[in-house]
Amino acid sequence: MRCFDQSKLVIYKRHEIYYARSRLPGGKYAWRSLATTDLKDAVSRGWKVHHQLEDRCMQGLPVTAKSFGVVIDKYVAARERDCKRGKTKPAMLRQIKRVTKFWKTYAGSKPISNIGDIELKAYVEWRRDYYSNLGSPLPKNANLHPAEKTLQWEIMLGKAIIKWAHEKGLRGNKPLPTFTFTPKVKRVRPAFELTEYRILWRTLWKRVRTCSNEDWKSSRELLRDYVLILANSGLRVGEANNLKGTSNNGAFGFVGAGGAASGAVAMLVCRLRGGLCVALRPSCNALDA
Predict the structure, then answer these.
(1) Which of 254, 68, 61 is nearest to 169 (CA)?
(2) Cβ neighbours of residue 235 under 8 Å, at least 6 residues apart?
(3) What is the DSSP string of 118-179?
(4) How far apart are CA 183 and CA 235, in angstroms?
(5) Which of 79, 100, 142, 148 is the most exposed place for a label (fewest CB within 10 A)?
(6) DSSP reduced 3-state for 47
(7) Distance (Å, rounded) from C-alpha 186 to C-alpha 142?
(8) What are the strands of the beta sheet with 253-256, ordered from one edge?
(9) What is the dihedral of CA 90, 70, 109, 28, to 10 degrees?
(10) In angstroms, rounded to a whole number, what is the distance separating the alpha carbons of residues 232 and 197?
(11) Among candidates 132, 82, 124, which has minimal Cα distance to 103?
């Protein structure tokens, strides 16, 4: 056994192989194999290991580096616990498990402390060419070229995993990555002509009339009214979902000739953001159910 600098570094031999014990700031100790049988070489390697461990301590990093793949496994396990507690929906958990497979393939062997803006930016191009370079049939429900929104969500998940590891102290004093992927392709829906809308409306009515199951019929009637109101009033989907009404004072209901069932609705009176009267377009009265 050889001691150096007041036992900050201790070189000892076990089974013909030299090992090093380093005393780190805070009174912590770390042991490493030097993978050599030569004493002179062991001393040189021992000091190199000691300085590397001291440098990690100065950066706030753990003595043993965690790979990105190990961190992903721990993150998924944490989300599984949240799912059992009702904090994470099962559908979201399935999506997380699906996307983390790409991240583990891309950078699973890299230390979590080395994942930054450069790696996140390079992931976008890597992901776009992933299935093209795979050289095998596409998995079920997989697209050869991912959509821009898909890439944006996967980058957000990668940043969430890095932030989670940062909060656990696995990245030390290193700053969080700031890279953000902005979709460049915007999908614009084509114009919906009145003739096409009339076909849709008649089909919705046909589904209601031919339904023999009362539970299904109620759901189809709701979809019919939903399409009628949103298509002719200009309400957004989120605004329609936030509609609240009361049956005792008539604050929420239809006003017009025959109501929604007749296809001649003139106005929808609802309570939204303190009170709102939504007028339907004249084309609503032109529908022939």
Answers:
(1) 61
(2) 229, 278
(3) HHHHHHHHHHHTHHHHH-SPPPTT--SS--HHHHHHHHHHHHHHHHHHHHTTSSTTPPPP--
(4) 25
(5) 142
(6) helix
(7) 21
(8) 253-256, 265-270, 276-279
(9) 160
(10) 10
(11) 124
Please identify which residue in the block is written with the tokens 């043993």: 64
DSSP 8-state class, residue 66: P
- What six digits make up the tokens of 190? 């084509």
* Token pair 């296809």 in the structure block, residue: 263
Q: What is the pLDDT along the chain (289 residues), one digit of tens a residue?
A: 778 777 788 888 888 888 888 887 777 788 888 888 888 888 888 888 888 877 777 777 777 788 999 999 999 999 999 999 999 999 999 999 999 999 999 999 999 988 999 999 999 999 999 998 887 788 888 888 898 999 999 999 999 999 999 998 888 888 999 999 988 766 666 677 888 888 888 999 999 999 999 889 988 988 888 888 777 777 777 777 666 554 344 344 444 434 444 443 434 444 444 445 555 555 555 555 4
